[in-house]
Amino acid sequence: MWMMFQVIPIMWKSVRPSKVADMPAVVNTFWLPKGYEGLTFFGHILTPTQELAERFNSGYSAIKNHEMIHLRQAQSCGDSWLRFYLLYIWYWLKGLRMNRRMKHAAYLLNPFEMEAYRRMHDIGYLQRCQGGAEEWRTYAKMPMKRRLSMYQNNH
Ligand SMILES: [Zn+2]
What we know:
Layout: H1 3-12, E1 25-27, E2 39-41, E3 44-47, H2 50-57, H3 62-76, H4 81-95, H5 105-108, H6 111-119, H7 125-128, H8 135-141, H9 144-154
Parallel strand pairs: 1-3
Antiparallel strand pairs: 2-3
Helix pairs in contact: 3-4, 3-6, 6-8
The structure holds zinc ion.
């Protein structure tokens, strides 16, 4: 139950995305949607199990890279967590209508997720976009149908 409130100090003590060097993973089952392994939350990574938390905290991995790309994206949203989350929700809402065409489309066709999934296996990506990740803007400009066919061609 206290996990519900555990996120308050994380938000309270959060700093601008550009000031975050690394994001520690903390176990939290309350705020994590089912099936999620990690969720970038104001400079921390929420994760459902201790085992996953250790995987996140033990250095480089593709899933860690994925979450760190979200940090870089927050930097490119005016260096503001709030602006990043508002935009994230906006794109998610816009993608909802695609859910009848493809399972989890609102999530998978979200421009932020498209960049994170596409670049998470690229070891040098974080380094190359230290000032902010911008590729999501390209996906955001694409019509939803094009994003869908792009996704389907890659999977
Ligand atoms: Zn993601």
